[in-house]
UniProtKB/TrEMBL annotation:
Domain PX: 68-130
Source species, domain of life: Eukaryota
InterPro entries: PX_dom, PX_dom_sf
Native source species: Aromia moschata
Record GO terms (molecular function): phosphatidylinositol binding
Phylogenetic placement of the source organism: Eukaryota, Metazoa, Ecdysozoa, Arthropoda, Hexapoda
Name listed for the protein in its UniProt record: PX domain-containing protein
PROSITE patterns the UniProt entry points to: PX (PS50195)
SUPFAM superfamilies referenced in this protein's UniProt entry, alphabetically: PX domain
Amino acid sequence: MHKALLPELSNPEAAAYFTRLIEESLKTRFTQFNFFLHNLAQLKFSADNNGGSLLSFVPKTYSMATDGQLVHVEVVNYRKRYDPDKYYVYVLRVYRKDQKQPMEIQRTYKEFCELHQKLCIYFPLAKLHR
């Protein structure tokens, strides 16, 4: 075990070595197949779990028919909050078709991460940036 940690290398060298190992493992067919199976299992679980498609911070499912088509969304500001620890919320301005006034909503970084995770699950072939 001790030898596997590469004690003869510096921390940056060891980190680079392990990074290369991880990158190589991600290229193998087994790893890609494992991710595929995991995504299938996640889709099945969320389909069985009636609320699985909902995000934790959104109380219901919205649709273009009920809420209108999104035209543009932009981050216009951020705010510092405490609860009791410090965190930030991002202020988003949402423009919808046939609505004169945009709506502003606030989302945390954690909520963006949850949205990204759901998008990756439901659209595994999409090239989403990290």
